Amino acid sequence: AVGEQGQQEEAEDSLTEHVDNLLHKNTKTRQAALQGLHLAFSSRTCSEFLLERHLTLTDSLEKCLRKGKGEEQALSSTVLTLLCFQMDSISEREDLFHRLKPLFISVLTDSSASLSARQRCATALGVCCYIAAADFE
Asked: For domain 1-132, which architecture applies?
């Protein structure tokens, strides 16, 4: 049990570092943080970590999607989709979806955005709508 608790603390420290690095000025640092979050969210549930930090994380990911270019936008849309899966309650998922929908559509319809970013935003919009939208239309 002690070893498991140590691993949990180490994982949370790593996640905290990734969240902090999302606001770094260096693009490569932000992309590495996005890749770390992608790996963490796709390999385990992080609901305890997200209880107090999901708003901060969402704000940082939105900034990466809004102001980033190319791969950064693509990665952030994927991480936002995984974040939607990680949310415990349906109302939190729905709130997140309604917050992200205009941003996904904005990148999706932006002809100057990279093809990869536009594709991943389309996927993110569809998946988040499927798992979080209460209104079927």
From this structure: Alpha Horseshoe (1.25)
pLDDT for res 25: 93
Cβ neighbours of 67 (radius 10 Å): 11
Is 64:30 a contact under the CB 8 Å cutoff? yes
Q: CA torsion 31→117→49→93, rounded to 10°?
A: 170
50's enclosing H/E stretch is: helix 47-67
Domain range summary for the chain, segments of one domain joined by +: 1-132
Containing H/E element for 23? none
Looking at residue 111, what DSSP letter applies? T
> How many helices (H) does the chain have, and how many strands (E)?
6, 0
- Count of residues in the chain: 137
Give dist(CA 63, CA 82) in Å, integer. 17
How deeply is 29 buried, as exposed, middle or buried, from its count of CB atoms within 10 A (0-12, 13-18, 19+)? middle
Mean pLDDT, consecutive 10-residue segments, the chain of 137 residues?
Answer: 67 90 95 95 87 90 94 96 90 91 95 95 94 73
